[in-house]
Amino acid sequence: MESPINLTPSTWLQRALREPLTHFVVLGALIFAADFLLLSVRGDPQEIVITKETYAEARGAFVAGMKREPTAAELKVLTDRWLDNEVLYREGLALGMDRGDQAMKDRVIFKVLTATQSGLALPKINDAGLRQWFESRRDQYDQPARFSFEEAVLAAGDSTPEKLKKFVTALNVQQAPELESSLRIFKDRPRPSVHQTYGVAFADALAKQTLGAWVVLESQEGYRAVRLTALTPGREVNYDEMKERVYTDWKEFTSSQLTKNAIREIAKKYRVRDEGKSS
User: Fold this and answer.
1) DSSP of the chain, one letter per residue?
2) pTM exceeding the 0.85 threshold for the entire prediction
3) Both 221 and 259 in a single domain?
4) 31-35, 177-181, 266-270: which has the highest mean pLDDT?
5) What are phi and psi of 133, to 5 degrees?
6) Is residue 58 part of a domain?
7) Which of 106, 144, 174, 264 is the most buried (most CB within 10 A)?
């Protein structure tokens, strides 16, 4: 089973595209793939310093992968993963696992991670427990509604609610609008993706619109001129049809949690000083 810590950048991107709701796992993987800069001077081997440069590197890795700034919670996931890797690396150095393998920090981390995971055992879970785990995470399994829609983007300075209303009125009566615009076309976008880009309220309002009619809707970043061209309703999935996948997901999640807890126990050997938290 592949640990979230060891996902490659290409694997991360594939999972991010396929499972947009599993951001916690893939964001943890991203920071390992970025391979943050080592501290130039380690000083006390029992002290780990999270520098401002570490935060900057985490932010840069996130922006490169997601094309947007991370939230505070997402940045914390990344820096926590960096700290996990640094703890594993320090433990590897203390155990002499770097001998004969000086070139790659990630190899030392992998050695300690493998040794740590070899001592872990998954708890037992019955069908009732697995079903309860599934129900608590339905948003990861239910098929979301999908939207196809178009957005007319006006020239800068023209996107006031009043100008947008005049613009969509002209579009709906098939007149040539006086304002210049460009058209964005979105096909079969899942609701969570629309939430992320435009906001929950926008998606709720869009779902109520008449197909083919231009309207002005408020998004989390301002008003938009849009028209809904297709809507595929979401569907709740049945536990029995997903049972095998649910069990695999439970194993991966539980293994990841056990690994994280084990690393946290190792981390108690070290003093962690965070120099970049307030930046």
Assistant:
1) ---GGG--HHHHHHHHHH-TT-HHHHHHHHHHHH-PPPPS---STTEEEE-HHHHHHHHHHHHHHHSSPPPHHHHHHHHHHHHHHHHHHHHHHHTTTTTT--S-HHHHHHHHHHHHHHT--PPP--HHHHHHHHHTTGGGTSBPPEEEEEEEEEPTT--SHHHHHHHHHHHHTT---SS-EEEEEEEEEEHHHHHHHH-HHHHHHHHTSPTT-EEEEEETTEEEEEEEEEEE--BPPPHHHHHHHHHHHHHHHHHHHHHHHHHHHHHTTSEEEESSTT-
2) no
3) no
4) 266-270
5) -60, -40
6) yes
7) 144
Q: Are residues 117 and 250 in the same domain?
A: yes
Q: Which range marks the domain in which residue 97 is found? A: 4-124+241-274
Model confidence over 116-162: pLDDT tens digits? Answer: 999 899 999 999 999 999 999 998 899 999 999 999 888 766 778 88
Task: Please tell me the total count of domains within the chain.
Answer: 2
Distance CA 176, CA 198 (A): 27
Residues 147, 182: one domain? yes
- Considering the domain architecture, whether residues 153 and 262 belong to the same structural domain is answered as no
Cα–Cα distance for residue pair 60/69, rounded to 1 Å: 9
pLDDT at position 238 over 60: yes
Residue 34 has pLDDT above 70, yes or no: no
Query: What pLDDT, in 10s, does the model give residues 178-220?
Result: 666 788 999 999 999 999 999 999 999 999 999 999 999 999 9
Q: Which amino acid is at 151?
A: E
Alpha-carbon span 22 to 170, nearest angstrom: 42
- What are the residues facing 180 on neighbouring strands? none
* CA 130 to mean position of chain CA atoms: 24
Name the most confidently modeled range: 10-24, 66-80, 230-244: 230-244
